[in-house]
Amino acid sequence: MSEALQDPAAPRLRRDAARNRERIIEVARLEFAERGIDASLEHIAKSAGVAIGTLYRHFPKRVDLLLAAFEDKFASFMAAAEAALAAEDPWDGFSSYLEALCAMQAGDRGFNDFVSMRFPSSEKTEAMHDQVCGVMESVLRRAQDAKAARPDLTLGDLIAVTWANSRIIEATADIAPRAWRRQLMLVLEAFRYRGDAELKEPPLTDEQLYDAMARLSDT
Q1: DSSP-assigned beta bridge partners for residue 192
Q2: Which of 42, 93, 130, 161 is close enough to 87 for a disulfide, judged by CB 3.0 to 4.6 Å?
Q3: Same domain, 128 and 211
Q4: What is the arithmetic mean of pLDDT over 171-178?
Q5: Residue 111 in contact with residue 70, Cβ under 8 Å?
Q6: Residues 54, 89: one domain?
Q7: CATH code of the domain covering residue 144
Q8: Are residues 57 and 75 both part of a single domain?
């Protein structure tokens, strides 16, 4: 289409649409952080100054908005993993990585929910969680290879830390906001290498872990 035939209002409409999208994401970050991933989309739209239909045009499903809202947090999460893998001491890398993950949970109820769950209906979140699980296993394996972490620790054990941390944060956030740190310190002491003795109770299988994470997103 030639410039002479273009609608002069089109660029303005595109700019308005872009502003609306960014405003929705900005408000969603705040709402998800305060109320969790089940925060009201109607309230988000109203606070962003748009109609609910406008929100759905940009984000047809709740999970689409979650992905946009947590994009920066995900980048920070991956940066923490890269720093852990680059740490000179594998145990320091492992422990600082878990601390960074738990700290991100403590500061954002929505991310707290998101990192603990699976969303099987979304290919994008599945790919994101696969990436997260892959890097968590790499950080753990490095600590185990250095005989710094227990040899029988699994990815499921690390995910269980996020589940436990989620509940601790929920119970203590406005009472003792640093309480999760003590619990993490106790967990890390239990995770240290102390020989080859394995626990009598077996870990979750990969299938059990996936099903458990998916179940959380259905509640």
Answers
A1: 149
A2: 93
A3: yes
A4: 90
A5: yes
A6: no
A7: 1.10.357
A8: no
Residues 121-156 have pLDDT tens digits of 888 888 888 888 899 999 999 999 999 999 999 999
Structural domain boundaries enclosing 198: 71-216
pLDDT digits (tens, 9 = 90+) for 64-117: 999 999 988 888 888 989 999 999 999 999 999 999 989 988 878 888 788 778
Q: What is the pTM of this model?
A: 0.79
Please provide the DSSP assignment of the chain as one string: --GGGS-TTHHHHHHHHHHHHHHHHHHHHHHHHHH-TT--HHHHHHHHTS-HHHHHHH-SSHHHHHHHHTHHHHHHHHHHHHHHHH-SSHHHHHHHHHHHHHHHHHT-HHHHHHHT---TT-HHHHHHHHHHHHHHHHHHHHHHHTT-B-TT--HHHHHHHHHHHHHHHHHHTTT-TTHHHHHHHHHHHHHB---SPPPSSPPPPHHHHHHHHHHHTT-
